[in-house]
Amino acid sequence: MSRERLYLFDTTLRDGQQTSGIDFSVDEKIAIADLLERLGVDYVEGGYPGANPTDTAFFAEKRTKKAAFTAFGMTKRAGRSVSNDPGIQGLLEAEADAICFVAKSWDYHVRVALETTNEENLVSIRDSVIAAREAGREPLVDCEHFFDGYKANRDYALACAREAYEAGARWVVLCDTNGGTMPGEVRRIVEDVQSVVPGSYLGIHAHDDTGQAVANSLVAVEAGCRQIQGTLNGIGERCGNANLTSLIPTLMLKAPYSEMLEVGISEEGLRDISAISHAFDELINLSPDVHAPYVGANAFATKAGIHASALLKEPETYEHIPPETVGNRRRVLVSDQAGKSNLLNELTRIGIEVDRKDPRLDGLLTDIKEREAQGYSYEAADASFELLARRRLGEVPVYFDVKSFRVMVERRFNAIGELVTVSEAVVKVDIDGETRMSVAEGNGPVNALDIALRKDLGRYQTAIDGMELIDFKVRILNGGTDAVTRVLIESQDRATHKRWFTIGVSGNIVDASFQALVDSVTYALLKAGA
Amino acid sequence: MSRERLYLFDTTLRDGQQTSGIDFSVDEKIAIADLLERLGVDYVEGGYPGANPTDTAFFAEKRTKKAAFTAFGMTKRAGRSVSNDPGIQGLLEAEADAICFVAKSWDYHVRVALETTNEENLVSIRDSVIAAREAGREPLVDCEHFFDGYKANRDYALACAREAYEAGARWVVLCDTNGGTMPGEVRRIVEDVQSVVPGSYLGIHAHDDTGQAVANSLVAVEAGCRQIQGTLNGIGERCGNANLTSLIPTLMLKAPYSEMLEVGISEEGLRDISAISHAFDELINLSPDVHAPYVGANAFATKAGIHASALLKEPETYEHIPPETVGNRRRVLVSDQAGKSNLLNELTRIGIEVDRKDPRLDGLLTDIKEREAQGYSYEAADASFELLARRRLGEVPVYFDVKSFRVMVERRFNAIGELVTVSEAVVKVDIDGETRMSVAEGNGPVNALDIALRKDLGRYQTAIDGMELIDFKVRILNGGTDAVTRVLIESQDRATHKRWFTIGVSGNIVDASFQALVDSVTYALLKAGA
To answer: Which residues cross the membrane (chains A, B) (predicted)?
Structure first.
């Protein structure tokens, strides 16, 4: 049986921009559009040209090659013609393949928000759709508040949908704008709407206010919709939009969807989805949700010792899909609950072979438990974990010995009367019995320490010349006076782009940072075979 | 029509403990059990007595008054009697009202993980349930891997469920252990199971691996299940368990659930759910998910200027439920996209009345936009926002003027040869034309600066004596050399327990912290009417 085509419409750059704390620049929008192209969605909604300078600039040229580049805007204002409506003219001037008009479909909002009549609103829908078609753009209509509108006045909500369809809209999108509709209602209403618009012209736009945006999208598809609107990682106003990074794997890997429908994403695109999800978080500077379905670092992670050993026997019976299909991987967590099975598995993963009966394993387990009790967490600090393990196995030379460090941050007026902040660090290390002192200034105390530490490591200098600190994360583990600070540092080799993560924990943030810096340098030396 | 009773079973302390990075102490378990009692769930599953010292100690006494205190454990081992199975005996000795046995119901796992026969597994289920009943405990059976087991061998999965029911289990819980089952399958399978177990004896235990744990739980209830298992904030292994903080409001506020079912949570419990959710995050030291359904800080937040003004006209048409019913509130975000409506609304909320036409509003909007472009975010820093606004309105006196500060962190060997880290800060301020210098040591640089800054503020000293810094959060906004650090400080008045949040942003972490400290002290002085 041939599968029907399901279209994916991404609105990360438009509805996703409503997320609190998010405000994309033009460059960020370009970078995100590239990610969406890599993924392979059918539509990229880029914003609202004419509404603000960023979106106008973004629509000065077409930003996608494969996906339909889509501009968003309001339908024509009541009481004026399309050619006299600057909003519509701005939309038509945008370099877009498609235009998605948002239209009121709840009679209450027509009256209160638009302050016009039901009939005028239908005219606005019709004229806007026709104007887009005449300008050679594919028209879509987002029926705002459709489900609430349907429950308040079914006939009028259906009239809006029909008007859009009959005027020539390629898609009539049913929006659960307030996000409170239950899956059962979505199914019933989508079925009913098909009395006026065929399912192959219907889209669903769901919000996650009850934690069911994904389920509502799938139920709408089961009921006949053939377009889903959503965002990367489910960002969006309030509780977010339908999460495309959850929906896409389900649509491609799970019955009945995979059997009845075809999407425009390739298997390569699917394998890239974890990387795309993380790259997007990096762009918007959010910590990735480790518990995210399919793409989260813990989506295929097992902690319990008892499960872990069974899992290693026959992993596929403990995993709902093979992690590799979505570019993720199985993780058996090294944790306070860790048994030897977990530990052995992690050691194998980083290339350390130890016999199960080796007594040093017990010592290592004790080390890990003690350090986790202090606040260390090796789940995200592979390099520090490897150092800890190899130290127990006697495989890490003492390259250098830090005798002391000192860092000073001073805010004062400089000679010409400007207020400046200066950070200066001094590090004293012993190498091969010889003491070396280095001093450096930096943007902040950690930067100064990093530069001073790596300034003169004698015969090891060449082995660390190519490394750089690329990210730095701080987490306060307890509040108040007992606060313990955990610092995670990401480093990279400039030549190979290989990255590694190290950790430090202390009541003192500078101390914690310095520990992570020392681990990072030591790891680089170890890998360089120094 | 009388509504049927639906039971809520919380497994935060047992399955929630499988979350990576979470490992509850006995004290934490006690505090969380208290939260669950406040909420009003029917069952509190506390852990696995006998499996580890923490859980054994936790079950040394009964920890709940209203909820059934439930111990979790495996069914009897094959080939030995109940009285010869130390695991079962440990369970029976626990001070519990109920025992929840986990039983295999997938024949594959019976063979591979238990290494026994299908018939022996049924015997284990039966004997375990009977032993619990005879010991005066209410027996429950979690059918592990039920949905995958059903799809592999329907007859055997049903035989396990039937065996548990016929042996006298109060609940037979269908577990989607791997979390990959779709709502449509859940519905079909739950309906079929009722050929052997009545719905009023069936529970559902869903995981969120496809983002549908909430939807799967609801669909199971529609199909007849009368118990839902879940966790606070949806914590749990991999992608987490069904989120009770999302499910409870939906069950109580949304048709058809609210019409057909009754839960044991009161309206007061429901109004407490946002506070309970946040208190739980605080206990486990996680940042609350601001986008969480119902309870997230942004669950009822609006950003767009255009929406905001309509929202203020008739809020209920933009909100799927009244935020107060779940103890949350409407938020109109001050943000880069802010229009005057948003800003006025926020000013009113913090008690500042300004005329819409006041030209200082435009200046304030510009201030906010400029600062947000630098990395400030006032959404979580009310006190800094209030200071910014009142400064524009000329209402904040210059209490003190910081001329300079200096902080030093040194790690070295002390006189008796111990490696110590010392943090020392010097702060120089002008007050009423007089210069004061203070010096202090602290646990870390920020602590030292905090103490030094508040050590001698002259005539203002009494107004700040009661304040203390209680939390400190650090976020790095860009990676690499352009890194900007945002520091958020939470302060409190020891007497009134009133808390306030201030923010600082700088390329230098110490600088950013100092800004937030100065705002915090200034805010305290302003509120004290100094």
So the answer is: none
> What does A107-120 look like in DSSP terms, one character per residue?
HHHHHHTS-S-HHH
- Closest chain A residue by Cα to residue B234: A291
In degrees, to the nearest 5, what angle opens at C-alpha B518 toward C-alphas B517 and B521?
85
Contact list, B274 vs chain A (CB under 8 Å): none
Q: Tell me the chain B residues in contact with residue A222 when contact means C-beta distances shorter than 8 Å.
A: 184
Interchain pair B18, A303: CB under 8 A: yes
Contact A404/B423, CB-based, under 8 Å? no
| A300–B238 CB contact, under 8 Å | yes
Q: Any residues with CB less than 8 A from the CB of B319 and at least 6 apart, and which?
A: A178, B300, B330
Cβ-Cβ contacts under 8 Å, A148 against chain B: 317
Give how far A108 is from chain B: nearest CA, Å. Answer: 9
Cβ contacts of B211 on chain A, cutoff 8 Å: 214-215, 243, 246, 250, 293
* Residue of A239, A246, A514 lying closest to B291 (CB–CB): A239
Contacts of B403 in chain A (CB under 8 A): 412-413
Alpha-carbon gap, residue B201 to B220, rounded angstroms: 13
List CB contacts (< 8 A) between A238 and chain B: 291, 296, 298-302
Tokens representing A227 are: 């377009």
Give yes or no for a contact between B197 and B172, defined as CB atoms under 8 angstroms apart.
yes
Strand pairing partners for A241? A207
Closest chain B CA to residue A514: B411
Exposed, middle or buried by CB within 10 Å (0-12, 13-18, 19+), for A315? Answer: middle
The answer to whether the Cβ–Cβ distance between A483 and B472 falls below 8 Å is yes
Fold of B401-527: Double Stranded RNA Binding Domain (3.30.160)
**Residue of B429, B490, B485, B384 whose CA lies nearest to A423:** B485
Q: Which of B211, B379, B405 sits opposite A243 (nearest CB)?
A: B211
Task: Tell me the pLDDT of chain B (530 aa) as tens digits.
Answer: 589 999 999 999 999 998 887 888 888 899 999 999 999 999 999 999 988 888 999 999 999 999 999 999 999 999 899 999 999 999 999 999 999 999 999 999 999 888 899 999 999 999 999 999 999 999 999 999 999 999 999 999 999 999 999 999 999 999 999 999 999 999 999 999 999 999 999 999 999 999 999 999 999 999 999 999 999 999 999 999 999 999 999 999 999 999 999 999 999 999 999 999 988 987 776 778 989 999 998 999 887 555 566 666 677 788 999 999 999 988 776 544 456 777 887 888 788 888 888 888 888 988 887 887 788 878 778 899 999 999 998 889 999 999 999 999 999 888 888 889 999 999 999 999 999 999 999 999 999 999 999 999 999 999 999 998 888 888 777 655 567 888 989 898 988 878 899 999 998 999 999 999 999 999 999 999 88
Q: Which two tokens stand for residue A94?
A: 């945008």
Of B243, B303, B483, the CB nearest to A211: B243
ipTM above 0.95, yes or no: no
Query: What CATH class has A400-456?
Result: alpha beta
Chain-chain contact of A514 with B411 (C-beta, under 8 angstroms) = yes
Q: Tally Cβ neighbours within 10 Å of residue B502.
A: 27
For the structural domain made of A4-265, what CATH number should be given?
3.20.20.70
Could you report how far apart the first and last alpha carbons of chain B are, in Å? 62
B391-450 pLDDT, tens digit per residue, is 998 889 999 999 999 999 999 888 888 889 999 999 999 999 999 999 999 999 999 999
- Kindly determine whether residue A285 and residue B214, on different chains, have CB atoms separated by under 8 Å: no
Cα–Cα dist B142/A448, whole Å: 56
Contacts across the A-B interface (CB distance below 8 Å):
319
Q: Whole-model pTM above 0.80? A: no
Where in chain B are the domains?
4-265, 401-527
